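pinned: reference chain
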Amino acid sequence: MYGFVNLTERGTSSTSLSIQTVFNGINFDSVLSDDEGSFTTLTVSGRANLTNRINMFEVPGMDGLMESNEHSTGEREITVKYKISDKTNEGFRRRTTLLNSLLDGSKKELSFTDEDVVYYASLSVNELPEENSNSLIGTLTFLCSDPKKYGPEKPIFFAGDSAVINTSGSAESNPVFELEVLAPITFAMIQNQFDEYMMIGRPAPVESTPKEEYTLILADLMNTLTGWAAATTVTNGYIRGEIETDGGSFRPKSFGTAVAPEKWQGPGLVKSLPEEVQDFEMDCILRNNNVDWGTGMVEVYLLDALDRQVARIHMSDSFQGSDRIHGRVQLGYDEYQRFPINTAAPGNIKNWNNFYGLMKLQRRGNRWWFYFAKIVNGKRVYVQQQHYIPPVEGIFEDKIAKIQVVFRKWPNTEATRMNIYNLKVWRINSLKEDEIPIIADVGDKITFDHKNEEILINGEDAKSYKDFGASYFTLKKGENQMIVHPSNSFNVSGIYRESYK
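pinned: its structure tokens
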């Protein structure tokens, strides 16, 4: 297989050709081409093909078949013929391995430089012939379960509560609407002239007063140490060192000298809440950059009035020489103390590396909710969450009175780069069955994503608020009239792509 190396034929850079392949934002002809070899897109087929699914059925006594007036479009298959080459056997193997790694993922954007449209595609097959040369012609076969192709992203502009969107594609388009909340609301609704609508929450009758389900009692931007005191206790380790603020986050300044016997150690600060709280939610935005560093643990403790641990949650890299971030929650302080969740990123354990994201604790009655999510480009990804009811009645139900932040590392290891950017604590209020809750407040962002069928409030899934009759409606060819309710409650924007068969 490796007996033939053609050093006289140099790979031709595809940048001189009229068509190049771009998958998941990566131009293969550029990234896979250098002075040692190249990837060259030769031909692309399947983009102009169209397959209709025609629904037919037999009718006794009738010639032929009865055809339905409606039909659907079948999936699309796109085949890319390419040439890949390298000066050496080893380089050829590296180049093909890199190609395969770039083809990972499902429903990623696929485009070609001769057309200003994208397809949403998954690789079906990458096929190369017998490898008897360092210059081979292969084929990439992509499956588009969504057969449509989409033009460039276009903005949607609202004038107050309304907008008119004119689309010229040959197929319906899926919009994404973003609503910035200007006043407390019990519902949010957007509809078109075809009586299609998307709505979350429910309007409040004029005779009722909407009730706040979540009351914000702490919102700390971590820009000052004022109001914080040195922590004196920590679970399974030592308080040592100092915390500083850079004006936008808390971070560890020092970790102190190693203490024997060795345990996790580092600095901590504690702050009293304005009130003791029974039912609550705590959100923490943090960073733990761990790749090529050592160990590090970012922790938030919820303490009772006697400084006893009600709960702690952390994101940590506990593995010297192996980059792996884990999330963990511990409840209690006595003989019932336990870890109900110890988790890693879904899919691939490395997906939480260099973590920037959110960890959340919530308690309603005796029901806990633990939540971890990485934030990438403003969107929560690689989410792990769990609901938990303790096995013994009455445990882990102490009121919380204080919040404590701690940065720790294992002694004599390099620390990961750790920050806490934001801490929020809400009191959760009990609502009667006939009381209408406020679902969003000033500054909140509601997303109606009709493309991915997602409803989000501040990046968090909010499908539980969806109205039964609401739908992820599409933009029709021609004029689409939009209006939002309640009036004067939102700054609205949006995006869409015109779609084509």
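why pinned: The chain is about 5% helix and 50% strand. Helices lie at 28-31, 89-102.
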